[in-house]
Amino acid sequence: MSIRFRQLQAFHATYETGTVTGAAALLGISQPGISNLLAQLERETRFKLFERVKGRLIPTPEAGVLFQEVDTVVRGLDHVGQAVTDLQNKQGGQLQVASQHAMSFGFMPKLIAQFARARPDMSISFQSQYSSKVQEWVMSGLFEIGVCETPQLYDALDTYPFRVEMELTLHPDNPLTRYDILTPALCGSEPFIVMGPDHMTHRRTREAFESAGVPWNTRVHTHLFKNMLSFVQEGMGVAILDPFMLAHDESGSFVTRPFAPAIHMDMMVITSATRPLSALARDFLALLLDEIGRVIPSSDAPGRLLPPAAAR
Question: What is the secondary structure of 229-284 as a DSSP string?
Fold first, then answer.
């Protein structure tokens, strides 16, 4: 038996529309073409598919059984064709992004939502985690794009590094808000809410106080910038925090000031160096790098040159 898919399509369309004319219009081929395909299928199956009753084609019992099997195949291929069209138009597919915690509160969800507006059929996989885990996920192929802190743990990553100047964050009632710029000398007696001692912002802030010869009063230790902000809002002290998170926090009850010397956090956007990015991911990567560049000074922004797909 040598049944061709076009024959099954003609049968499926005729069964659903009830006429050769309707099937021809649905498939965009001529009525004689439909009739010829149906005749070919009847020869292959060795049973009659339709009886003509008052101008309509009534399926035989055998055709009813065949339709149940053919329906799944034909609709399945239609879905495949639509998926291909969506991918060609960059409307479908899946966006896979992972981010360290600070940028996952506000910044990344808003950027992904902006990207998704023109792609209603796109599915999204987004997770926030510690930077080491984000690198591991991108390395293993679980996510195409990651945003994390340095250092780079795996050689098989393409990186787009950028540097973020942190902001000193205070409760609005804190007397230090009267200063335009804050220094270790001005903050000598102020309790600080800090990340753990291994975090780069902890080390760099400690070095700034040591260089100034001022004791550093650390009161609360925690592991997320979002938690640090909550303690600031409760009046527990001040904190060196990430501007991406602060810019998208709508809870209020805090003010920010520059800190001198500047405390920086080194970050990077990462992709796999061993697997090509999907067209969807390449478009989002370009948007992400541009948006980061809008938030931080150009000298600290990530590079904009994306690797060509053929070179990956």
Answer: HHHHHTTS-BEEE-HHHHHT--S---EEE-BSS--EEEEEEEEESSSPPPHHHHHH
Alpha-carbon distance of 11 to 1, in angstroms, equals 17
Kindly report the CATH number assigned to the domain that includes residue 186: 3.40.190.10
What CA–CA distance (Å, rounded) separates 290 from 284?
10
pTM score over 0.90 = no
Residue 287 tokens, joined: 């948007």
Residues 237, 173 within the same domain: yes
CA dihedral 285, 291, 292, 297 (to 10 degrees): 140
Same domain membership, residue 66 and residue 146: no
pLDDT in tens, 164-189: 999 999 999 999 999 999 999 999 99
Same domain, 101 and 155: yes
pLDDT in tens, 12-48: 999 988 889 998 998 899 999 999 999 999 999 999 9
Angle ∠(199,214,166) on CA atoms, nearest 5: 40
- What gap in Å lies between CA 28 and CA 166, rounded to an integer? 62
The number of residues in the chain equals: 312
pLDDT digits (tens, 9 = 90+) for 50-103: 998 877 889 999 988 898 888 878 877 776 665 566 555 555 578 999 999 989
Identify the domain containing residue 255 by its residue range. Answer: 167-262
Q: Which residue has the tokens 């808003």?
A: 110
Confidence of residue 229 (pLDDT cuts 50, 70, 90): very high
Of 145, 155, 168, nearest to 302 (Cα)?
145
